[in-house]
Design a protein that fits this description.
338 residues, alpha/beta, D-Maltodextrin-Binding Protein, domain 2, five-stranded mixed β-sheet, 43% helix, globular, cell inner membrane, Putative nitrate transporter component, NrtA
Length: 338
């Protein structure tokens, strides 16, 4: 059976790319045709309209699409999660110099960012910060980051949507002062000498829900074999002994505009954060391990709480229950056998 699976070029697309390219899908009787999508909005629409059979998708966007809050309303299911964490806040070199935080600690960096943001807003030239989509953990992490020092993001900063593959170029052209995006684009910006990784998403919101495997809800007959293939591919991706091979695969097949050495660092969490070569390591920077694969309905509820906090959905009501029902740990368990 042949299926078309959409993805946005990010390191955490590794499980679906490995499933398609390394024989995991074929072992389950599937042929996966990978479709590289330029933005989350495009991927959302193509999945909703039936041009894709499955997708590597932002968890909050899957929820928003199913609830009719973003793009064409779509009946979806989430039988598997693809990982946790993987994001970071990167700022231009000029903004980092203006911030001049007292330390690299999250609190000091957030306070320094807020001070510059308030000053710029008072001058009538607010900071412009990119996020990958309004319905994304990136948007919520930016708000949590700002909230550490009491900054009202909406009142002081102009948030703009920039698709992940375009974030580095937007920073280069001076169209944004920084962004929150997933790996490897923060590291690509640093390698290009354009910015500084200021804060890791896993420190702002530990074990933050991220991408999911999203499928039409109409009980596709490929659900179980696809979940098994991507789960087994995810186990392979998470094994440290496969990191070098995975990095080469992503460099060659995922169109990430990054070399294998840089990708290996994003997979290990040993990052270079500035043009001077400062290193920073956090093993939880990007998690693809087996413990992240089962779709967790509490993650869906947390995401809806973040949506409510920034006014995307009304507080109360049944949105959290509807979102939780979208996540299907029963389908995951049935597919992998327990």
């Amino acid at each position: 059976m042949r299926i078309r699976l959409g993805y946005v070029p990010l390191t955490d697309a590794a499980p679906v790319i490995a499933a398609a390219e390394l024989g995991f899908a074929r072992a389950e009787g599937l042929e996966i045709e990978l479709a590289r999508e330029p933005s989350w909005a495009t991927l959302r629409d193509r999945l909703a309209l039936g041009h894709l059979d499955a997708a590597h998708m932002l968890g909050p966007l899957a929820i928003a699409s199913a609830l009719g809050l973003s793009g064409p309303e779509a009946r979806l299911s989430v039988p598997m999660a693809l990982g946790l964490n993987g994001n970071a806040v990167t700022v231009s070199n000029a903004l980092w110099a203006a911030m001049a935080p007292e330390s690299d600690g999250l609190g000091d960096v957030a306070a320094a960012f807020s001070a510059v943001a308030r000053a710029r807003a008072g001058e009538g030239r607010p900071l412009v910060i990119g996020t990958v989509h309004p319905f994304s953990s990136h948007s919520y992490q930016l708000r949590l980051f700002a909230g550490l020092s009491g900054l009202d993001l909406d009142a002081t900063v102009r948030l703009v949507v920039v698709p992940p593959p375009e974030t580095v170029d937007a920073l280069r052209r001076g169209r944004i002062d920084g962004f929150c995006v997933g790996a490897p684009w923060n590291s690509v910006a640093v390698a290009a000498g354009l910015g500084r990784i200021a804060a890791l998403g896993c420190e702002i919101a530990p074990d933050c829900p991220e991408k999911v495997l999203a499928l039409p809800a109409e009980g596709a007959d490929f659900t179980a074999p696809l979940v098994r293939a991507v789960h087994r591919a995810g186990l392979w991706c998470a094994a440290p002994e496969n990191r070098e091979a995975l990095s080469r695969l992503l460099a060659e097949r995922a169109e990430l505009d990054a070399d294998a050495a840089l990708l290996a660092r994003t997979l290990s969490g040993a990052l270079i954060v500035d043009r001077d070569g400062t290193e920073r390591a956090n093993p939880d920077y990007l998690r693809l391990d087996a413990a992240t694969h089962r779709p967790d309905r509490e993650h869906a509820r947390w995401l809806v709480a973040q949506m409510a906090a920034c006014g995307q959905v009304a507080s109360g009501g049944d949105a959290a229950d509807r979102a939780a029902a979208l996540y299907r740990p029963d389908l995951f368990a049935a597919a992998i056998g327990g």
